[in-house]
# Entry
Amino acid sequence: MKPTEKEANGTSFHSTTINCSVSTLRKVLGEPYCEGNDGKDKVNFEWIMETDDGGVFTVYDWKEYRTLNENEMIEWHIGGHDRTVTSQAKQLIEEKIKNG
# Structure
């Protein structure tokens, strides 16, 4: 799993989520692709990543409409071209969180 330069156009939400903090995602995914933590838009943070086999996925907060504390637990959406990619992404993120 790594940040990608590939387009995320066409990715969508397939009911795959993960609960963790912004600081945890920074540790496992690196710095977000997009960050505007002011609560004015539908998304404050977004990562655009790809799996080792090239599947593009996004991780983003959805409609929090508030400034997020870096350490609070929130539900993150994982988007992708299909549920197989989003499920794989969730598993990869959870493994990386667990293994530090």
